[in-house]
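Lab notebook, bench 4. The sequencing result for the construct came back, and we need a structural model before the next group meeting so we can plan mutations. Quick request posted to the team channel:

Model the 3D structure of this chain.
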Amino acid sequence: MIKEAIYHRPGNNYAYAYDEKTLHIRLRTKKGDADKVTLIYGDPYDWTEDGWQTSTAPMTLSGSDEWFDYYFIEIQPPHRRLRYGFEIANKDEVLTYTEKGFYEEAPFDDTAYYFCFPFLNAIDIFRAPSWVKDTVWYQIFPERFANGDISNDPLGTLPWASEEPKPNNFFGGDFQGVIDHIDHLVKLGVTGIYFTPIFKAKSNHKYDTIDYLEIDPQFGDKDTFKKLVKICHENGIKVMLDAVFNHSGFFFEPFQDVLKNEEHSRFKNWFHLNEFPIQTEPRPNYDTFAFEKSMPKLNTENPEVREYLLKVARYWIEEFNVDGWRLDVANEVDHSFWREFRTAVKSVKPDAYILGEIWHDSMNWLQGDQFDAVMNYPFTNAVLDFVATESIDAKVFAEKLTAVMQMYPENVNEVAFNLLGSHDTARVLTLCDDNKDKLKLLYLLMLTFKGTPCIYYGDEIGMSGGRDPGCRKCMEWDESKQDIELFEHIQTLLSLRKKHKVLANEGEMRFISAEGKVLLYERSSYDESILILLNAGGKVEKHLFTIPEDYELLFGQEHSHSLPPYGFGVYRKR
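Done. Here's the predicted structure in token form:
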């Protein structure tokens, strides 16, 4: 065996408390190296005259990526503490792997050899709001969803969808427009709305905040927003707002004071100013988001800045009963601030959802002291590569998705924010070269995967568009121009996900076959099994497996030994 490929650490995603009684333990080995892995474990204080009392239990091969196999076991130590090691075997050798290294025979004379989980303290368990696991989100870019009240239109507002979206044009989308179309969301089956920023700002996207405690006038007033939240809650829909705490807008009053008073401004330490006088061209001489002069970076290490932003975090929950915060550019803000942020938010609403915008491995933010989840772009990239661009085959896709599932503890995976597209990416239909059958497969994959999925407004009716600003078109409300069949496809998948919890977060995921462009996987629990079969290629594909006779078709088409282009079937064991 390749010893240097074998890895475990007693923490993070390799050993963690799943609940008050249960530990999850993972081990990584080189792909194909081990035939069998056994956990050796015992209470560190359980000694008799015969020595340390240990037990063994087989670990399950939970998945494989390109390079590694991953083994998993769920265990309930009777006294909430554990010492443990691993017996790894193949036809040629048997090794015992402990914290101190490898042994041909397991050492039992001292527990110090073994990995240690000192004690399962309930307060250390990662706890995200339980409601999130059953939530399906719908992302709304407020300026482009619906114009329900022309009286609050900003100067220069254009007739709805009268031209292509631009970085600086306005169409008058507002809160009343969302209220007017709440039935559309209820009919689709979504149970959460994620709004991009609603606070006073100059741009149409509102990521350049002027006042974090005021709603932008073009969206309505606070009474209208309070009414919107109430209507959402009455329809079983949660509301999540977007907080831009990494940077403010250029016209944020403290930054305007800095521009006016330079080094004499009392707000000069609210930002990261490198020198005086302040310059915006050719590049700003102050820290910003990217090099965007209109978005000066906030100094969240400054006590006054922290106090102001934490006040904002509490205010919108206390006054309007919102259910969560999505945090823009979250990885560029210091961890200390996010810890205080979590404490502040949870003090006013313990089950509020805290979602960070991070596009890469985010374990440092998911220790239970900062975020509940991050936006799951590794999932996004894998499914788009497999279906939309067809740049990888089913085998590579299964390996990539396995790697995604191994990145975090299971209780983190259950609330991961899964998406296919957003206001930051090209429309998913456009990425599919306007192939609706591909888009259907993407939604099939997302809505049968663990986590909390999100639909970007308009994707459910077949809207298209390139990257920003093309992805920010006005919502199409003319039903004759909506793709009703696509809407019904997603509606059906949401209904199945709600009815069969095994498709969401109550079931395990296992890849059964991945060859060419044909994929077969199972979502299963102790009392239910559902098979998903699909062809992500543009030609008829033969396959060698037969769906067992005791499985019935839930959705899709019956297939014998071949699948049409982009064909699929969802089967449930009777």
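The domain at 247-297 is CATH 3.90.400.10 (Oligo-1,6-glucosidase; domain 2).
Will bring this to the meeting.
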